[in-house]
Amino acid sequence: MKLAFTPADFALIGVVTAMATAMAYVHSPRAKSVVFCLPLPFTAAVISSGQSVDLTHLVGLLLVLLFPWLVWLLHVRMRVNIFVADLIGVGAFLALGFLFARLLPRGGQEREALLFAGGCVVLTVLSAAGLLLPPRIEPGHRSALPVYFKVPAVVAVVTGIILIKEPLRGFMPFFPFATIFAVYESRHSLHTLASRMPIMGLGSVPFLAIVRALQPEHGYAWALGAAWACYVPLALLLDQYYARRAVDGVDLVDAVDKRG
User: Fold this and answer.
1) Using H for helix, E for strand and C for coil, what is the string for 23-63?
2) Dihedral of the CA atoms 198, 201, 207, 212 (nearest 10)?
3) Please, what is the average pLDDT of the chain?
4) pLDDT value at 250 more than 70
């Protein structure tokens, strides 16, 4: 277990704390999802982990894309308490992360490179398919929990994951740092949050591919800068798509609900 914290570790704690706090006190479901999809935690976490991008990062992305849907299924469909649903999601991520971190091939192997390329295609197709999900109008919510309770909780979670980052490999940068708190703060609009995951999926696949290609020769600064330059315009374009679709889909969704 690594006990000496690096500047990147402290940056990760600060970034996730800021994001979780912002999501807690933003009322609009759309604004919450926009904050949530920013790749800030991954940017800090990939530097903190010190590991080159490999297949474990890609599988970690898949798990974090599924995380809000698992919580939605448990809390909304199965009526499981939101805290319990959140804990089940975290437990599932950690269990699968530790398992696949041991089983998946390491970077630098030809088999790993082929699997990474194939995984990029599969995740892109799955994320694009998610764009077809019908919109829903859900209520906004602003946290009533004082910030002096929330911040220590966020810091404790991030610190705990930093301490076990080495065995988690590429699953550590995609641990649902902000997502743990995002699903709780969005418990009244979980479908809105989960249905926005294609933004993260379609943005993060090229993000990972760029960092993987550039980081070994050019370092984290150039690699992450190029990845952000790709991610931001794509995320803004997709956000506008969702915004237009929500407005256009209100009457249709309401009509279907009334007929049902």
Assistant:
1) HHHCCCHHHHHHHHHCCHHHHHHHHHHCCCCCHHHHHHHHH
2) -170
3) 84
4) no
